[in-house]
Each structure stands twice: as structure tokens, then as C-alpha cells.
Amino acid sequence: MWKLQRYYLRELTVNAAITFLVMFAVVLLSSIARGIQRSQGGGVLDAVKITLLFALDAFPHLLTIAFLIATVLTFVRAAQDRELLAIRAAGISPRVPMSAAVLVGILLSVLGSVAMHYVIPDVHFHKYRVVADVVRNAFLNLKLGSDRIKILDTGYVMTFREHVGTDYLDCTIYCPPERVLADMRSPILRVDRVSMPPPDRFSDSIHILPQGVRDPIGGAYTREIPIEIPLRDIADRERRHDRDDDLRSDQLLAEVLRGVHLRPHEAVYALFRRCCFSLMPALLAPIGFCIAEFARERGRVLALVFALVPLAVFYLGEVLGARLLLTTASPWAAWLPAAMLLVVGVPFCWRQLRR
């Protein structure tokens, strides 16, 4: 029996690994645009890191889908080659080859449990913080990536010819009407150099220092133009606050038990949801085997189409569970996907294995 299980165990493991790598590569490529967008204010390495973190955030979904596809492909090949028929003819229960899929499913459930409770929350937290909030918000809000900088709510707009470090050369500053001084003949000023030095740790604002200011109509302008931007105005704009998805399960459970979580039913729902996702490979193992045997005469493509049914049931349960949480405030709604999958899968597997 062990030789038979080892035979299918090896084939299933290889198919699952290849399927997962292909799907992960597709997700990685699709995350490049988001990584570039999120890395504004950082460098190339920041874009690569954000892209990788966004792809890793899809790990639980990829693990489940890749394993189900690999299970169906492995055993539909065995069914079409009459291997499963020969096993039945030899008096061996179909549960013997199916146990190989169950073993891999249990192993992936353990791996997925560790990832869902400890690794993925950290990934979800750090993917939004590769570039510091102040740096990224300053880049986006001040539009430092273009040649036209609007200095937040001050009303000043600056264009420049060249950017060297923290200095902007050959600039033109457009002053708002309410900030035009009495001795200024034009709201447009020409500036040789504008410096934006980064704030030190004791400062709570960014100081903009124009040098060589000239009024195009009145000539040289010697009075200083103080421009100051509070860091709070930069950091708090478009800031993303922590959510339950950013906390590990032990941290989330500690907040609930200590009574400091604002919405404890949502926190428990997040914990149950992670447990439900972790169990998915083990639940889908027998279903994938029975789908493969059921589609023996129908081909591999149709078998993959049949494999979409349990996935559709699971993700439908995920959507309905979230809606049920909003209406009932019951965290047990997180188990609805697994319950729906059991309702659909148990009769199907029971019928197929007893044939």
C-alpha cells in the first residue's frame, strides 16, 4: 500500500509545486504596476520589494487553488490510464490512492495555518510601509516627481528647470493673490535656487528656502519669503491606519481577551477566517480526487471545469459570510465557506467512493 501511496504522492507533489510556481509568477507579473505605483518616493529596490510582498499576500489563495488543480490533473491522468480502475479491480479501496492527496492536503493545511496566522499578517502590514509614510506622502502630495510642485495649502506653485539633490535650480514661483506682498509688482517670482532640506528629528515642519529671488518687473527682491509646511499636513494625508489584517493572530486574540479591541466580533471573525482558509487544502483533497475519477471519460479540460465548482462554492461562502457578519455580528459566519463546501462535497464524495 505504501508503494502505491508513494507513487501518487511524488506525482502530486511535483504537479502541485509546478502549478503553484506558474500561478505565483502570473500574480507576480500582475503586481508590477501596483508595486511601481506604491513605490513613489522610493527607489527601484522598493518597487521590487512591494511587488513581491503584494504577490506573497495572495499565498493562501494560490496554495489552495494550485493544490486542487494538481490533485485533479494527477488523478484524472491516473483514471484515464485505467490505473484507478485496476486498483479497484485488485480489490484495493480507492481511499488508498486518495490518502496520498489527503496527506499532502494536511501538510499544506499546517503550512497554510502558520502562514495565515503569523507570516501573511506581517506581509500585509509591511507591503504598505516599504516606503515611509512621510516620504511617500511628501512625494505624492507635493508632486515631487513632476516639474510642477504645488506646496499643499499655502497656494504656492513652483516650476523648475533642474533638480539636484534637495535643491531646485532656475525656478519660477507663482504666489497666490492673498500672499502677494505690498512691494511686489508681480505675483510671479524668478528664483535661482530653492532648497528643501529634510527636517531634523527636533523639527515638526519642512522649511523651503528660496535663494536669489527676482521680481520680473521690479528687479531683485531681497526680502525673505518664509514658506513652511507642517509635517502633520504631509504625514496624515492619505495615511493608511492599521487593520485586523495587519495583526498576527496572537496579537489579535490578546486585544480581544484584554477587552481593548474596538470591534471584538470582527477580530474573532478574522481569526476564524484564517482557520477556515488553513483547512481548505485538507477539505479539497478528497473532493479533487472524486472529481478526477468522475471525469475519467470526459477529459482533463472538463475535469478542470468541474474543479471550479468547489472553488466557486468556497468563495461564494466567503462573500456570504462577510455579509452575514454585517447583519448578525456573529463571528461564526467565518466558517460558512467550509460548511457550504462540506454540504456539497460530502454527498458527492460518498457516492463516488462507494461506486
Topology of this protein?
Elements: H1 2-30, H2 32-38, H3 44-56, H4 59-80, H5 83-89, H6 95-126, H7 133-141, E1 148-150, E2 157-159, E3 162-164, E4 167-174, E5 188-195, E6 205-215, E7 219-220, E8 227-230, H8 231-235, H9 249-257, H10 264-294, H11 300-328, H12 336-353
Antiparallel strand pairs: 1-2, 2-4, 3-4, 4-5, 5-6, 6-7, 6-8
Task: Characterise this structure.
By secondary structure, the chain is of the alpha+beta class. The protein is built from twelve helices and eight strands. Helix 4 (59-80) runs antiparallel to helix 6 (95-126), helix 6 packs antiparallel against helix 10 (264-294) and helix 9 (249-257) packs across helix 10. Mean pLDDT is 79; it is low at 131-141.
Mean pLDDT: 79
Helix content: 55-70%
- The sequence of SSEs as H and E is HHHHHHHEEEEEEEEHHHHH
Residue windows where pLDDT falls under 50 for at least 5 positions: 131-141
What is the strand content? 5-15%
Name a few traits of the molecule:
355 residues, eight-stranded antiparallel sheet, 12 helices, 8 strands, 59% helix, elongated
Brief sketch in words of this structure:
By secondary structure, this protein is α+β, with helices and mostly antiparallel strands.
